[in-house]
Every structure is written in structure tokens, then in C-alpha cells.
Amino acid sequence: MLAGCLATSASAYAQTASDAQAPRKNWYNDPFFALSSAVSACPMPLGPLMTQAEAEDDAHYRVERGTTCWLAHKCSKPNSYLYDADIATAIRERFKGDASLANTSLWITVQRRFVYAEGCASTSFDQAALQRRLEAIPDVEQVFVRVTADPRGALPYKTLAPSN
Q1: Residue ranges covered by each domain of the chain
Q2: Which domain of life is it from (predicted)?
Q3: CA pair distance 113, 142, nearest whole angstrom
Q4: Are 79 and 73 in contact (CB under 8 A)?
Q5: Contact 110/31 with Cβ under 8 angstroms?
Q6: How many CA atoms lie within 13 A of 115 on its CB side?
């Protein structure tokens, strides 16, 4: 029995280690872009980058989440992911040359009408104002702002694991 548990644990560890080394890409072409880039030390968020195994595992869940909006009569399009490209375009247009983004490095991910703003900004940066402005974009359902003032400290968002 103990040998079986150890073998299972070793297999799970090997799987986790191999997943960490597996190449990541944006399998579903979710919009992911830099909105600003003034803080050079700011780590890029993981965004929608995932391994092939993660993408395969997420496929059914994405279909289910994507169609729920339409089935609930909250969307006119049959899948909530179909709004993402237009939302991303609207964000780029709304914030192009925006002075409020000076001294920030922010990345945007759009997935199923959810907007994730992640990155670095000074402590004086108005995160609540950013959230309100993103929420005002047509078809945005929810906004998550995950910003730190210390790019070398604990981050409020996931990044790629450092290479060894």
C-alpha cells in the first residue's frame, strides 16, 4: 500500500515537473497585450499562456462557461468569448496615449468578457479609476485589477516560472 502511494506521489511530482517545463502558448487566442511599459523591472503576467495539457483540460470548461451567457439570455452572441476581440480593441483605443498610465507597466487579458489588468504602478496610481474605466467599456462583465507597487516583492498575479 505504501509503495503504491509513493509511486503515485512520484508520478504526480514528475507530471508537475514536466508541466513546468512544457512550452506555453495562447492556445485559444485570448487577447493579451501590454497597455503600458514604463516599469522595466515589472514581470510580465502569465496571462492566457498555458501548456497543451492545461489547454486540453480547460477545453470543456471553456465551452460550458462560454455558452452559459447565451443560454441565460445575457448575451446576444452564442459564446461569451466572441466578445473578447472587440473588448480588447476598445481598451486599446480608450487608453491610447493616456497620461494616467505614465509610470505603469500593465498587461491586459480578456477572457469571456472578463478583463484582467495586471502589472506594476506607483502607490499613487488610482487602481479604482482604472477599474471603473475598464468596467465602462461595452460588453465587459467583470474587471480584476492586480497591480503592485513593488515589482520585486510578492506579486498579486501569476508569472512564468523562472528558468533554471
Answers
A1: 26-148
A2: Bacteria
A3: 7
A4: no
A5: yes
A6: 31
